UniProtKB/TrEMBL annotation, chain A:
It is found in: Mitochondrion inner membrane. The chain crosses the membrane at residues 36-54, 90-109, 115-140, 201-224, 230-248. Gene3D superfamilies: ATP synthase, F0 complex, subunit A. GO terms for cellular component: mitochondrial inner membrane; proton-transporting ATP synthase complex. It is a multi-pass membrane protein. The gene is atp6. GO terms for molecular function: proton-transporting ATP synthase activity, rotational mechanism. It holds the Pfam family ATP-synt_A. Keywords: ATP synthesis, CF(0), Hydrogen ion transport, Ion transport, Membrane, Mitochondrion, Transmembrane, Transmembrane helix, Transport. It comes from Lyophyllum shimeji. NCBIfam families: ATP_synt_6_or_A (TIGR01131), PRK05815.2-4 (NF004482). HAMAP family: ATP_synth_a_bact. This is ATP synthase subunit a.
UniProtKB/TrEMBL annotation, chain B:
The keyword Transmembrane helix applies. Keywords: Membrane, Transmembrane, Transmembrane helix. The gene is ATP17. GO terms for molecular function: proton-transporting ATP synthase activity, rotational mechanism. Pfam families: F1F0-ATPsyn_F (PF10791). This is Mitochondrial F1-F0 ATP synthase subunit F of fungi. The chain crosses the membrane at residues 69-87. The keyword Chaperone does not apply.
From TrEMBL, chain C:
This is ATP synthase subunit 4. Residues 25-47 are annotated as: Disordered. Subunit b, of the mitochondrial membrane ATP synthase complex (F(1)F(0) ATP synthase or Complex V) that produces ATP from ADP in the presence of a proton gradient across the membrane which is generated by electron transport complexes of the respiratory chain. ATP synthase complex consist of a soluble F(1) head domain - the catalytic core - and a membrane F(1) domain - the membrane proton channel. These two domains are linked by a central stalk rotating inside the F(1) region and a stationary peripheral stalk. It comes from Lyophyllum shimeji. F-type ATPases have 2 components, CF(1) - the catalytic core - and CF(0) - the membrane proton channel. In yeast, the dimeric form of ATP synthase consists of 17 polypeptides: alpha, beta, gamma, delta, epsilon, 4 (B), 5 (OSCP), 6 (A), 8, 9 (C), d, E (Tim11), f, g, h, i/j and k. GO terms for molecular function: proton-transporting ATP synthase activity, rotational mechanism.
């Protein structure tokens, strides 16, 4: 094992501070720019830049940049309309920005040496729990106490009510976790897999020439996995927003 | 003579009405002035696109290209590599750990 | 043991170069296997794609500079070749392939959509231009309406004046006719009066003569005169 230093394949998800201020003010305030924060800023800048530069000066006739923006807006808009209802389009800006945040977070992480923002639990779980709390508050403010009828399916015998309420409550609370875990588990799994495979491939390639030539076969599979990762980036962003849409529909319409 | 009688007698004298303001301005009843002002302010002919800046060169109109994506990926890789190099890669150089 | 470590570290130092060189060859081999154009053409295509700024940097030198930079970076261990490089190479291959796959369909799709929107908008503009032009033509028919109306008023004024004059003339004619008829009647009356007077006169004369004739004295006078005339005639030996 000497000669190769193999870091843990999970070390790429490590949040490390780049520039930090540990000032003895306000009870030892610690302001740190971590790679997580830096890449979040990149996501913000890219999302902003795409929409500022790709808008074709708001011309009526689109160009090749703005037509992709218009198409993605149209598809997200139709998704919101189908899921939440035509009168609930006030949630479209939220869904739209959520989609682009997750999409760019996922896509940036596919660039080698870059940090996967959505692979940190603090981001994806933070997002999902925040959305869960917000959706619950929204449902309470729309329906008041009637919201709690959500936990009792219609036509339940009275004897079963306590049990069913418990089950429904647990399943409702599980949403908060499942939403975030789905995203970050997918990204973590994909990146870890790539890291492990690339470590193997590197070892094989740095062997003799014959082995390196033979390694081209698993390398082709590795190429396919890279493609799969990019596809997963898109699909997970879409799935996340779709589920947020369905939770919003539950909050607005209560079944 | 009565006034109506006079009018009837004068009817042969007054020439027929061949145009009214309404006929000119459509059914709106207003004059053509605002309309003419609006159309005279519209730009005429083809627009010559101004190619300037990053947006003009790589994003706007016919110049839309995929180069910014490539630049973005390369830039992200460079930043990521620089960070990684300064964080720990340079300590693993020559495999001296 | 120490010699083994030294040996392996020596081998490891040599490895990065081989590792860096190998995947690139592999890329070329994979890319060319599907469509094999002549290598010269392939090379010139590659050369065309390289960046260049005229005068400063030719395409050939930019290739040499890039290769040199990469080699320097690797040999100086500024670029550390490790397992992430495999991901990098694979990503480059995949993204290049993907962009090549996607470029043409995306271009076609985008241009079809743009053309559709452009057609709709330009159709609307042409229609609107047509409508405005139609309107302008409509209004243009009325452009000499003012002078026309003024002409009509002038004509009607003229007509009115002529009618007034005609009326005056008619009145004059009527007055003259009236006067003539009055005068004629006067003339007729006086003629009748004269005739009546003459008739009266002759009747009076005849009556007087008849009355005179009935008187003896007159008869005598006439007789006497006749006798005297006869005597005269005789005297003159006329008879």
């Amino acid at each position: 094992m000497s000669g190769f230093n193999i870091l843990s394949p999970l070390s790429q998800f490590e949040v490390s501070s780049l520039i930090g201020v540990n000032a003895p003010i306000l009870g030892y305030l610690n302001i740190t720019l971590t790679n997580l924060a830096l890449y979040s800023c990149f996501i913000l800048l890219i999302a902003l830049g795409l929409h500022l530069y790709g808008n074709n000066d708001s011309n009526l006739i689109p160009n090749k940049w703005s037509i992709s923006l218009e198409t993605s807006f149209a598809s997200l808009s139709s998704m919101v309309r189908e899921q939440i209802g035509a009168q609930s389009e006030i949630y479209l800006p939220f869904i739209y920005s959520l989609f682009f945040f997750i999409l760019f977070g996922n896509l940036i992480s596919n660039v080698p040496y870059s940090f996967a923002v959505t692979a940190s639990g603090v981001v994806s779980l933070g997002l999902s729990v925040t959305i869960f709390i917000g959706v619950t508050i929204l449902a309470l403010s729309i329906h008041g106490l009637k919201f709690f009828s959500f936990f009792i399916p219609s036509g339940t015998p009275l004897a079963l009510v306590p049990l069913l309420v418990l089950i429904e409550l647990v399943s409702y609370l599980a949403r908060a976790v499942s939403l975030g875990v789905r995203l970050f588990a997918n990204i973590v799994a994909g990146h870890t897999l790539l890291k492990i495979l690339s470590t193997y491939l590197y070892k094989l390639f740095s062997g003799s020439v014959l082995i390196a030539v033979i390694t081209l076969i698993p390398f082709a599979i590795f190429l396919a996995l890279i493609g799969l990762e990019i596809a997963v980036s898109l699909i997970q962003a879409f799935v996340f927003t779709l589920l947020v849409c369905s939770y919003l529909r539950d909050a607005v319409h209560l079944h | 003579m009565h006034a109506s009688l006079v009018r009837r007698q004068l009817q042969g004298l007054i020439p027929p009405k061949i145009a009214t303001p309404k006929l000119v301005s459509g059914d709106a009843g207003t004059g053509l002035g605002p309309l003419v002002e609006f159309y005279s302010k519209l730009p005429k002919g083809r627009v010559t696109p101004r190619v300037s800046g990053i947006k003009g060169r790589y994003f706007s109109g016919e110049n839309a290209s995929g180069k910014p994506i490539v630049a973005l990926i390369v830039g992200l890789f460079a930043i990521g590599y620089t960070l990684d190099y300064n964080m720990h890669l340079k300590h693993h150089k020559n495999h001296a750990h | 043991m120490a010699s083994r470590i030294a040996f392996s570290s020596m081998r490891a130092a040599a490895r990065p170069r081989a590792a860096a060189a190998l995947p690139r060859h592999a890329v070329r081999a994979m890319a060319t296997s599907s469509n094999p154009p002549p290598p010269e053409q392939r090379a010139s295509e590659l050369m065309e794609k390289l960046p260049s700024s005229p005068g400063l940097l030719t395409k050939g030198t930019s290739a040499i500079v890039a290769t040199g930079l990469a080699a320097t970076a690797i040999s100086q261990e500024l670029y550390v070749v490790n397992e992430e490089t495999i991901i990098l190479v694979a990503s480059i291959i995949f993204v290049t392939y993907l962009s090549k796959m996607i470029r043409e369909p995306y271009k076609e799709w985008a241009e079809a959509n743009i053309a559709r929107i452009r057609k709709v908008l330009e159709g609307a503009r042409a229609e609107h231009t047509h409508a405005v032009q139609h309107r302008i033509d409509n209004v243009a028919q009325l452009k000499d309406v003012v002078s026309l109306t003024q002409g009509l008023f002038a004509i009607s004024k003229d007509t009115a004046k002529t009618e007034a004059e005609t009326f005056v003339q008619q009145q004059k004619v009527a007055v003259a006719a009236e006067v003539k008829s009055v005068l004629d009647s006067w003339v007729r009356y006086e003629q009748q009066l004269k005739e009546a007077e003459q008739l009266d006169l002759t009747r009076t004369v005849i009556d007087r003569v008849l009355v005179d004739l009935k008187q003896e004295k007159t008869q005598r006078d006439i007789l006497m005169q006749a006798v005297a005339e006869v005597e005269q005639l005789v005297k003159n030996k006329a008879v």
